[in-house]
Amino acid sequence: MFPKAKAFSLIELLVAMAITSIIMVTLFSLLGQSTTNYTQTQRAVNAVSQSRAFIQFFDRELSTRLPGTPLIHEKESTATGPTSSDRIAFVRALTQDEFDDADPGDLSTSVYYVDFSDDGKRGESPKLFRKNLGPKETQKLIEEGATPQFPTVNATTDEPIIPNVISFKAVPMFRDITDGELKEWDDTSLQPPSVVELSITFIDDSSAQRFKMKSEWDRLATSPRDTELQLIRTFTRNIAIAK
């Protein structure tokens, strides 16, 4: 009888080990899923925080725009991918803490555009840049008339404010008095712009590690794979223009 009892114990041991293995695999699977969900949630929270901070900043700047001064909006028709994004520049009043004795005056020009810049060993990536023209340069811009040239920009010296930007749109719109609808504004419009339709699309910094060349970013912007769609986040808002 003893050998039978020993065999029965061995079977029980094997069953117990199998059950334990199944439980461990299940626990690790749940832990991995929880970690993935947490990471995705954290990325979403970070993206919301980043976009909200930018939109608030842009809103504050646009609220100080000086009516009757140039508002320059361009679309890069020949570019592809992220660099086909909108470019916008507008004249605004400086706040007191922005005054500079070396460049006296109370007007400035805020310039926004998307371009690629070097990330060292990580390759290159597209970013939303902001350039600020001081009072002297702004005065020259105003003196060019109603349709001045878009200011000269330089991604190696201008300030990057949002990384990994796939698309940026900042479209001035006016409300048509004939039908009350918002329509895209340009220099030939009979009515002044009333809002800017702002939209920014980007991915988080961790996900951006896999894209190192301009061609990879261009593909992501124009034809993302199904597995990449969950990485892309877009935030939009209509921002009133000071009148």
How would you sum up the major sheet?
5 strands, antiparallel
Shape: elongated
Global structural class: alpha+beta
Task: Please state the oligomeric state of the protein chains shown.
Answer: single chain
- Along the chain, the helix and strand elements come as HEEEEHEEEEHHE
> What is the CA-CA span between the terminal residues?
99 Å
Got a strand count?
9
Q: Quote the average pLDDT.
A: 85
Proportion of helical residues = 25-40%
Order of strands side by side in the largest beta sheet?
1-2-3-4-5
Portion of residues in beta strands equals: 25-35%
Low-confidence spans: 34-41
Radius of gyration, CA atoms, in whole angstroms: 27 Å
Q: Count the DSSP helices.
A: 4
What does this structure look like?
With 243 residues, the protein is an alpha+beta fold. The chain is 35% helix and 29% strand. It contains 4 helices and 9 strands, in the order H-E-E-E-E-H-E-E-E-E-H-H-E. It has helices spanning 2-63, 135-143, 214-222, 226-229, and strands at residues 71-75, 86-93, 107-118, 124-133, 159-163, 165-175, 182-184, 195-202, 233-240. The chain has a 5-stranded antiparallel sheet. A hairpin with a 5-residue loop joins strand 3 and strand 4 (124-133).
SSE diagram, text form:
Blueprint: H1 2-63, E1 71-75, E2 86-93, E3 107-118, E4 124-133, H2 135-143, E5 159-163, E6 165-175, E7 182-184, E8 195-202, H3 214-222, H4 226-229, E9 233-240
Antiparallel strand pairs: 1-2, 2-3, 3-4, 4-5, 6-7, 6-8, 8-9
